Amino acid sequence: VDDLAEVDYSLNSLPAVFQPFIDLDLKGIVYPAGNYTDPPYAAAPFIIPDQSDSMLYLAFSEYFFQTSSFAYYSAGAFNTTISEETCSYFNISTEIFGSIIPEVAKYSVTPYPVMFKLMATEMPIISLEQDSFTVEIQGSMEVFAVLPDSTNQSLFTMNITANTSIALNIFDQKLMGSLCLNR
User: Fold this and answer.
1) How far apart are CA 43 and CA 17, in angstroms?
2) Of 27, 45, 69, 148, which has the most beta carbons under 10 Å away?
3) What is the dihedral of CA 62, 68, 70, 73, to 10 degrees?
4) CA neighbor of 144 nearest in space, from 134, 156, 132, 136
5) Dist. CA 76–CA 72, nearest whole Å
6) C-alpha R_g of the chain
7) What's the pLDDT at 171?
8) How far apart are the first and last CA of the chain?
C-alpha cells in the first residue's frame, strides 16, 4: 500500500467459476510493512447479498479495516506534530491559550509560538454499519511553547476520545464521503 503497510490479498480457496460469474475469495489482511505477524483479530465470515445487476462487486469486511488500523497504528501513522512550520496558516501562540487557561498565562508572559504533538494512545476501532462506518480514536495532545532558543516547554497535555461516522456515496460517478463527529 505504502511504506507503512502491506496487503496480503492471496486466495483463500480456488475460484468458483459459474456460467454468469467468477467468485474470488481473497484474504485481504493488512500488515505493518515487513512484519507478517498475525493481527490480534479473528476474521468473521460474511456473505455478500446475491445481486446480478452489476458487472463487478467488491466487499470489504470489518476485519480488513481492523487489520489496516492495526498496521498503521503499529507503524506510528496516527502520531503527528503540528507546528508553525508544518502549516503556514497555523498561527496560535501562548497568548491565545493564556486567555483560556490561566496557568499558561502565568507561565508565559511573552507570547511564544505553539506546537501540538498528537498521539494515538490505543489502536483506533473501526466498526462497519449498514450505511456507514464509525471510527473511534483515543489519544493525547501535548501542547508546547516554542522558546526563542528553539527548545520546547510543555504547557499541558490532554486526553482525547473522538468518535466519528463516515458515510460513502457515489455522486456523478465519483466516490464521495461525509464525515460526522459524533462525540
Assistant:
1) 24
2) 69
3) -140
4) 156
5) 6
6) 22
7) 81
8) 30
Position 24: which residue type?
L
Rank 30-39, 122-131, 166-175 by mean pLDDT and report only the highest: 122-131
In order of their start, the domains of the chain are: 1-75 (no CATH), 78-182 (3.15.20.10)
- Give the residue carrying C-alpha cell 498565562: 105
Compute the distance between CA of residue 25 and CA of residue 61 in angstroms, rounded to an integer.
Answer: 12
Cell (9 digits) for 7? 496487503
Q: How buried is 67 (Cβ within 10 angstroms: 0-12 exposed, 13-18 middle, 19+ buried)? A: buried
Nearest to 141, CA basis, from 85, 91, 97, 75? 97
> Is the separation of the CB atoms in 167 and 132 below 8 Å?
yes
Provide the pLDDT for residue 31. Answer: 82
DSSP result, 58-119: ----HHHHHHHHHHHHHTTTT-EEE-TTT-TT---BHHHHHHH-HHHHHH-SS--BEEEEEE
User: How many Cβ atoms are within 10 Å of 154's Cβ, its own excluded?
Assistant: 10
State the Cα–Cα distance between residues 115 and 143, nearest whole angstrom: 6
Maximum distance among all Cα pairs of the chain, rounded to whole angstroms = 77
The answer to whether the beta carbons of residues 92 and 146 sit under 8 Å apart is no
- pTM value is 0.74
